[in-house]
Description:
The structure holds two protein chains of two kinds. By secondary structure, chain A is α/β, with parallel strands linked by helices. Chain A contains eleven helices and twelve strands. Chain A is globular, with a radius of gyration of 19 Å. Chain B has a five-stranded parallel beta sheet with strand order 1-2-3-5-4, with helices on both faces. The longest helix of chain B is centred in the first third of the chain and has 23 residues, at 9-31. Classes of the chains: A alpha/beta, B alpha/beta. Chain A binds chain B through residues 40, 43, 45-46, 48, 50-51, 53-64, 81-82, 85-86, 89-90, and chain B through 111, 117-122, 124-125, 127-137, 139-140, 158-159, 162-163, 165-166.
Amino acid sequence: MRDAFIRTLTELAPQHPEVMLLSGDLGFAVLDGYIDRFPRQFLNVGIAEQNMSGLAAGMALEGRTVFTYSIGGFPTLRCLEQIRNDICYHGANVKIVCVGGGMSYGPVGFSHHATEDLAILRSLPGMQVFSPCDLWEAAEAARHLVLHRGPAYLRLDKSAAPATVRPGEAFRPGRIRTVREGSDVTLAATGGILGEAILAADILADQGVFCRVLSVHTVKPLDSGTLTAAASETGGIVSIEEHAADGGLGGAIAEVLMEAGVFPRFLVRLALRNTFSSVVGSQQYLRQVYSLDAAAVVRTVFAKLDIAVPALA
Amino acid sequence: MNSQVFATGPTGTREIAQRLRTHALRMTSAGGGAHIGAVFSCADILAVLYGGILHVDPAAPKSPMRDRFVLSKGHAGAGLYAALAERGFFPAGQLLTHYRNGSELSGHVSHKVPGVDVSTGSLGHGLSMASGMAYAAILKSSRHRVFCLLSDGECDEGSTWEAAMFAAHHGLSNLVAIIDYNRIQGIAPVGDVLELEPFADKWAAFGWAVREVDGHDHRALHTAFGSVPFAPGKPSCLIAHTTKGKGVSFMENTVLWHYRIPRGAEFDAALAELEAQP
């Protein structure tokens, strides 16, 4: 996803000289193509995220479209007040880009995981929150952000769900993509972990349970129409995210449905439950440990539908 | 651009400074707002800046060519509002809405007020924003300048020094940081909390061209601001030695008047002192 983002920015930078990319001293080698071609539209501001966010706000107030770029919680939590006061309060045209969304940087350790970012960033007034699920969505979200005016957050995952884009499909910010039709259960995921949802849907289909799979690439604004339809048309909703349960995608879905007065038969939030991702292991391994992988989704669906769990290959 | 709206020069700006103090006294008293000591401390600096140094035009408050001003010590908002009203950005009558329900004049400075470039209030934010503005100005070859007024207390914030390193590294000679060095922060003297000395050396070591000035001497302030950048290719830092609460004897150099609201006999006494001054 990171490469898809950089590619898109590199493609659009010539037509958009107002674009500035600020890096907090990260992106070794991967940013080189962009930097070489657009040295005046790039700045390595050093390992100083508070300053990076304040600078970005200042530049944006002078007409620039500024992307700040760093890993995990560095471009968000480290400088949250600068994002709130300097960027959001001024409606500054700054896009905060996190590489390593969720537990992408698995064995590097919890310090580099971004597992509270969606909850925190979506609480900020005026902030749009994107968490693309596959490479096409990542590129399209980046394209949208170059054109969009105002604060936004882009969470890029190292993993990516398999491509589901249809020929001629246009990316619609704020609109959930239904990547698999079904009415037994809805699986709603954000980030590369959508791949686990699709895998689970395949396994469940083999067992005669047909899932509607939703790719929630925009967490804010959240597409209430697609969610209320899912709540009323399917047998229940399972949300899947590499994020804390508190305030994450599942929480956002619950808010939307409760306010709309449309109650699913069940809503299960597969997410980190009041815990840090402190086990050492790859992203895939950690999904298994924290019951976020396809097998966990399948177990959850069977339990909620009160179906005995078959022995799966 | 009309940058000479009212009488300038040391004499004119001294009168402006006294009017700013009187405005601020009334604003904080009526509205129940605090930080009067911090406003008085920088009233002379604001008067000199808005009395002729800053190229700003009340008729075109968003002009791209204007000089930018960032009040990083946002708690002195009453002083900036008063300076802007005196300069003609909005009627001085609005000043007394400060702190009142429904007013735009929040205690910490707000960009929703005409003439205010950025909102601040949390310390250690302003110099980064000012640096971003200055960098963007250089990118578009604009000749306007960015002035940023900091408190001494906010030099406790690490983010101030992140910005200081950035501005020097990139040679932002269009950036001027002014430190209101009154040596008293929120609840204690600076020297008792975190010693800033050798303060000028610190800024110089970070790559800034530094000058020191008596922050209440209008002639010296004029001279200093008239000679920025202090060195080619460097951001300028003006350390203004000031007295917290300057202008009212019982408010001067006391921690108490950082937060205390002037009311009743204290208000009357303060007003009498200000009005007695030439």
